[in-house]
Design goal:
Distance between the termini: 53 Å
Number of helices: 5
Structural class: alpha+beta
Strand content: 25-35%
Radius of gyration: 19 Å
Largest sheet: 11 strands, mixed
CATH architecture of the largest domain: 2-Layer Sandwich
CATH topology of the largest domain: Alpha-Beta Plaits
CATH class of the largest domain: Alpha Beta
């Protein structure tokens, strides 16, 4: 039987998603506790919709695993609630067809990146503190430049570049919510460090260091040396993974009001 897992995690305490020897990872923690609770003599192999880096959070991650036995999904979910540490929450386990694959069946993923220019003692490991104003028009123009199918090789760490860097971005915008500026990007796939490099470059555009044409130049040339600084991973959250026939809404979501139009720089 194949099972789907919907989960969320606070990335600060993990060395990313992927299992690594002697390091605490989301995949490793899940596999450990599932094997214990299912009393499995063999390792339970979990496949995620993506491999988030160290420090990156998720409110809408999806994964799957295969198991020989049939079990009560609700009961296993409750047992995981009790067993797992507080920075890792499984909201639902459900049966899935054998043709379902958490990674390859996904048709879109959505990330949000949060920035604030107000220093605060709470939430500092989920939001990038960035003093000073940003030009809203420049940010909007830079975000609009990435919409569509493009080769994003220039926004990917060179050592991890794939055969092709084409991603189709269907949504890219900045919104304000109180003291927060939120960059929301939706695409069919993402390259390694793509969102952090995009946000770092857009911030330099918003500061007036470059014009929005800089983003287009990086897309055209594929030259990562033209990027701005890389935004820190802790401001990034995977908020949704979509599959054919789904609404794109996962059981866990960021519980804040819908951000309004970005009308001005941070105050």
């Amino acid at each position: 039987m194949r099972y789907r897992i919907d989960l969320a995690y606070h990335g600060a305490g993990f060395h990313g998603w992927q299992r690594q020897p002697h390091l605490r990872t989301v995949q490793g923690e899940l596999e450990l506790w599932l094997a214990r609770l299912l009393a499995s003599a063999q390792r339970i192999a979990i496949t995620g919709a993506g491999r988030t880096d160290a420090g990156v959070h998720a409110t809408g991650m999806v994964a799957h695993f295969d198991a020989d036995q049939v079990f009560d999904c609700d009961q296993l979910t409750m047992r995981l609630h009790a067993a797992l540490p507080p920075d890792l929450v499984v909201s639902r386990i459900s049966p899935a067809g054998q043709d379902f694959h958490a990674r390859y069946s996904a048709i879109a993923r959505t990330y949000e990146y949060a920035i604030t220019n107000r220093r605060a003692p709470f939430g500092r490991d989920r939001v990038w503190f960035l003093p000073g104003p940003l030009d809203p028009t420049a940010l909007e123009d830079a975000a609009a430049a990435v919409i569509g199918p493009h080769d994003f090789s220039g926004f990917c760490i060179a050592a991890s570049r794939k055969e092709h860097g084409t991603c189709h971005v269907t949504h890219s915008e900045w919104r304000s919510h109180g003291d927060l500026l939120i960059c929301r990007v939706r695409a069919d796939r993402f390259l390694h460090m793509m969102v952090c490099l995009l946000v770092g470059t857009m911030v330099d555009v918003g500061r007036g260091r470059w014009s929005p044409d800089r983003v287009r130049e990086i897309l055209d040339t594929g030259d990562i040396r033209l990027c701005g600084g890389t935004a820190p991973a802790y401001g990034l959250t995977l908020v949704a993974v979509e599959y054919p026939g789904s609404s794109g809404q996962n059981p866990i979501s960021i519980e804040i009001p819908q951000p309004g139009p970005f009308l001005g720089g941070a105050q």
